[in-house]
């Protein structure tokens, strides 16, 4: 029975299923949010009126769902689980039964979060950031069990991903095939293990903090309540100490997907394999010392703003290097525009914009104005949406043949890409300007403020574009399900790619490889001068005449 | 872009806005360079019959220089932004100019409870006056506010003054601003504070010196 | 000498050990985070000296002795594995479990006394941290007792043989739990 399977490939698909389910729920929340903003206090078609506290719940759950129940299961758990053993030449993860347990725990977390929508008082409504005292005392929000269950669901999600992290790290360290040195690992594996390290070392303080918040809510403790000697800012530090590395936990695997796809459809090595790895490690380490850029105006000592501004702006350097490396990969390449490649390039282009707007946010004086406005919302949608959705679609369309043994439809894929690219930009580019106009986050009715009324036509435009963006996902849904059952049967290596997963069947059987592969070279030997073809798999034995050179 | 900001009537607003523009020009240049190169490469190096790929791995220092040197430029521009930012931050949040007008602003679901010190200039005395959601100040003078909260975290946001500061329960946070010209502006709350967060705000009245005198006389009549 | 199955590893370190070390690394950040909060909040406040006078120092000292001894018995259990002495293994595991249960019993007795005097978790910020930190720690002790009990049952049933390395891994976890207490004891009871 599939739900007892310990095969990493089955587990990956189960995470994908859960992630796509939550993406639909998350999409529904974004539709309702945008409808309310554009047409306040009117009935949203297909739903009805949206009350102010319901609106707060929508923005809260939208963020929670997208970060913890869409991005993480798809980018980390699906692609990490599916690809790591295959790409390192292993038969499965180091701890297959722990892996099985992690899906069950994640499924339980999903159930708890789903349940929280239906309890009296509704689901959590204190923002995905859950700042106390608003979140610490039920009387402030009117939400009681909803917030308690939210904390429990998050705790379970953290436990599930801690288990996954242990598996990813141990597997990569210990189960590599002969010849697979660390510097012959595909970049997505490097990204996954860096993300795992970041997650495992940053989530602990938030687990502590979440336990403290739950105790404040149900046991009468006062960790965050000033009337009991507690400190509201304590939560902010604990949350963001995790929160910032967390966005790189999400981004790095997405980046990894792009770094795998680009060389294949450029027929050229990824530029700067080693500089990319060193930059990633540097960015990972830096990510632990930027967190308080979320708190410049929180009441913390203003002298802290400068150090955190500096580290925040510096973190642009390693990412800039990686961006330049990706651009350099395209130079003098031979580029073909398959659906995966389109989405990969889309990820890069969108991420550049998101990274650049990060500079504005990271500068403390500018943040005085833009903190808490839609400029921030635009910034993080450019970075997170590119990582989660553009890279996610790139990965799904690229590895679909390997996962399901069939090809997806290219025409539908391209239509889906263009609709997504155009409408994503239509939604989120104007949002920067709405933010610069001063529109605050998390408000249900901009018309209540005179200075925001001139921005309303832009808000309406954004909402209409958002509806079209959601509708534009239909080709993907159709393509996905149609291809599952009726797609052209895929050969072993339809993309003529070098990494080890393409040496296994499509899909691979239990145990992945007929014989454990032996690795002879780096993953990106495309258009190598050593051979006539424009690709050279990692596990192809060297020609006898070149054997001496290996 | 110039139209998108609300009118700036703050003595330090210009510093914030010009820092914003510095960042805009720098990031704008990088945007054009990177996206332009991508577009150019996509067109120039698309797959064509007979085209040979240049095998260039970028893993040694000589080849990696193509990304390391631009990376260095990024670093230098970052440092420029940081140094300008440090100056502006020091000016705004790094010191508290003297003022004889100190007003208490307390956030409470879902109002700004504003307490004026009255003619004696001291908060907590008999001539204090509370008005909700209305802040009256004179133009051209430094105004200090003491931010407090009775329940959850709120954030006092004056868009036209480029002023924002969280109001945290259990703390008294001092901040300052100075309006350069009279007018009527808004002061929304910009931190989610409950079901009434949307709509929580009020009016900021910046008076000419004469109007301000008149307003003071109206509210604290001579004994 | 009993046969042992060994899986191929790229580093020569058994995978179970690598996994447990990563797990402990994340646990260090949980307790580290909580303890750091306690230190920072306490330094920033009045010092809470008054509150700590209501703690029972002698019971905590006894508990420290109990846990340290249990770490010793855990080491002896692993020695039993390495020396091929099933009896030594079983007795030492049993002692470790009993000492863990004694720790929990003393802790429960302590809590009962404090609650009777009115020092509940709601009694102020010090008590929030006291119950939060020692409670989370106690849950970890309970989990360790559970793991050790499973190993003991397997050892008694003579089915532990192929997996005896798990005693070492359980030992790593148990020592970690002990070390956390070594931090909590002075931070709560000695300051």
Share of β-strand residues of chain B: 15-25%
**Order of the strands making up the biggest sheet of chain B:** 3-2-1-5-8
Structural class of chain B: alpha+beta
The share of residues in extended strands of chain C comes to under 5%
Written overview of the protein:
The complex is a heterotrimer of chains A (550), B (223) and C (191). Chain A has 550 residues and is mainly α. Chain A contains 16 helices and no strands. Helix content of chain A is 63%, strand content 0%. In chain A, α7 runs antiparallel to α11. The mean pLDDT of chain A is 96. Chain B is of the alpha+beta class and 223 residues long. In chain B, the strands form three sheets. A five-stranded mixed β-sheet of chain B has the order 3-2-1-5-8, with no helix packed on it. A three-stranded mixed β-sheet of chain B has the order 4-10-9. In chain B, a hairpin with a 2-residue loop joins β1 and β2. In chain B, α1 packs antiparallel against α2. By secondary structure, chain C is mainly α. In chain C, α4 packs antiparallel against α5 and α5 packs antiparallel against α6. The mean pLDDT of chain C is 91. Chains in contact: A-B, A-C. The interface between A and B is large, with 97 and 85 residues.
Characterize this entry briefly.
The complex is a heterotrimer of chains A (550), B (223) and C (191). Chain A contains 16 helices and no strands. Chain A has 550 residues and is mainly alpha-helical.
Question: How is the topology of this model organized?
Answer:
The complex is a heterotrimer of chains A (550), B (223) and C (191).
Chain A: H1 8-38, H2 52-88, H3 96-116, H4 138-141, H5 145-174, H6 187-218, H7 232-266, H8 273-286, H9 305-314, H10 316-330, H11 339-362, H12 364-370, H13 374-404, H14 410-436, H15 456-471, H16 474-486
Helix pairs in contact in A: 1-2, 1-3, 1-15, 2-5, 2-6, 2-7, 2-13, 3-5, 5-6, 6-7, 6-8, 7-11, 7-13, 8-10, 10-11, 11-13, 11-14, 13-14, 14-15, 14-16
Chain B: H1 13-44, H2 61-93, E1 102-108, E2 111-116, E3 129-132, E4 134-138, E5 142-149, E6 154-158, E7 163-167, E8 173-178, E9 183-186, E10 203-207, H3 209-219
Chain C: H1 15-44, H2 49-52, H3 57-82, H4 86-116, H5 125-156, H6 165-189
Helix pairs in contact in C: 1-5, 1-6, 3-4, 3-6, 4-5, 5-6
